[in-house]
Amino acid sequence: MAGGWTRDGAVQDQIDDSIADSVSHARARLPRGESAKDCAECGEPIPEGRRKALPGVRICVDCQSERDDTTPPAGFNRRGSKDSQLR
Questions:
Q1: pTM of the predicted model, to two decimals?
Q2: In this structure, which long-range contacts are made by residues 35-42, counting pairs with CB atoms below 8 Å and at least 24 apart in sequence?
Q3: How many domains does the chain have?
Q4: What pLDDT, on a 0 to 100 scale, did the predictor assign at position 42?
Q5: Are 26 and 75 in contact (CB under 8 A)?
Q6: Are 63 and 41 in contact (CB under 8 A)?
Q7: How far is CA 77 from CA 15, 18, 68, 83, in A?
Q8: Whole domain around residue 65: which residue ranges?
Q9: Measured on CA atoms in the order 57, 58, 59, 60, is the torsion positive or negative?
Q10: What are the per-10-residue average pLDDT scores of the chain (87 residues)?
Q11: From CA 35, how far away is CA 51, in angstroms rounded?
């Protein structure tokens, strides 16, 4: 049940849209094409299992882990917090 000026199901629509945006963003970041044999960042060989699992991969697991730790989360919160709406 929605409240105020919103229609029923509006909150679920926002949740669905947020999920769809996140999935689209993640798919866009997936590597494509032929995998590299050596890591583009550190030069170490990329294991064949990783190259088969992720076609188009260019970096090794260690370098990817470092990237993942420094990559900020994508998107934004459509709903916002009550706190931000009161300012």
A1: 0.50
A2: 39/63
A3: 1
A4: 93
A5: no
A6: yes
A7: 10, 8, 21, 13
A8: 10-69
A9: positive
A10: 64 88 88 89 93 90 88 62 55
A11: 6
Burial of residue 82 (CB within 10 Å: 0-12, 13-18, 19+) is: exposed
Report the alpha-carbon distance of residue 7 to residue 81 in Å, rounded.
Answer: 19
In terms of Cα–Cα distance, which of 53, 57, 51, 50 is closest to 31? Answer: 57
User: Is 79 a member of any domain?
Assistant: no
Domain-located, residue 29: yes
Tokens 């990783």 label which residue?
50
Are residues 30 and 24 in contact, defined by beta-carbon separation less than 8 angstroms? no
Could you tell me if residue 84 is inside a domain? no
Residue 3 lies in a domain: no
The pair of structure tokens assigned to 38 is 């050596």
